[in-house]
């Protein structure tokens, strides 16, 4: 008796064995050590530069009076309107002071770390923009020393950091060795916060990504309400950031390469997973067919 057999169908690859592709595998990430040295070096240069700009007390107060008058001429709302709302609650003032003292730098560092790890192309762009804005700010600090509104008698505002705490500044600007208190314009608190929001909006595709704008909005209310900055400080920071963004453009296709990469990877994985499931289902329904069968048997 002769018989022939049909080979068993190859078993489908289990879904668990399908590797989810990395959406960032094609993006070149800058060397970590170089980036650390670069970012730290820029920060040190900025801090040293701010200290060099210190010591212009008389000029800083003259400029403060000018800025105060300019704001009245432009009919900008008084900083006291924001501070008045804060002063209704000691807890609210303390939270605002804490936000001013502790969120600014850590939030920017966290932003850069995440961008470096998850969006390398966006990271290089964001780092360059932040460096340009910071350099421009340093130039303004050197050429236009400015006392903050909390030190300006004409403003009639409370130095909430000194009264309620915490504060990052000494009680007397002339003897403060930790910070230059005459570097109010532009506000890097606001400029950096706005860039963090813009960078995350550009680098992500979530429908909720616009909520990142709450960070610069809250920062603006804090810097004005605590009398550390004038409205014009934030306006100038926004202008500098706008110029930097116009000059330093995000590379064409960066969004498609990185921001859409995760979506594409997920879709590819789900499609492969579905194909494997369908093959598995067909094999289960006809399990007997996977065993060699005797066909065309004859005596």
Note down, in words, how this protein is organized.
- The structure is a single chain.
- With 299 residues, the chain is mostly helical.
- It has one domain.
- 60% of the residues lie in helices and 3% in strands.
- The protein is built from 12 helices and 2 strands.
- The chain has a two-stranded antiparallel ribbon with strand order 1-2.
- It starts with a strand and ends with a strand.
- Mean pLDDT is 80; it is low at 15-26, 261-270 and 281-299.
User: How large is the radius of gyration?
Assistant: 30 Å
Global geometry: globular
Helix fraction, binned, reads 55-70%
Strand content: under 5%
Number of spatially distinct domains: 1
Helical run tally: 12
- Unreliable spans are 15-26, 261-270, 281-299
Structural class: mainly alpha
The number of E-state strands comes to 2
Strands across the major sheet, in which order? 1-2
Protein name: Inositol phosphorylceramide synthase
Subcellular location: Membrane
Transmembrane segments: 99-117, 129-147, 182-203, 210-228, 234-250
Keywords: Membrane, Transmembrane, Transmembrane helix
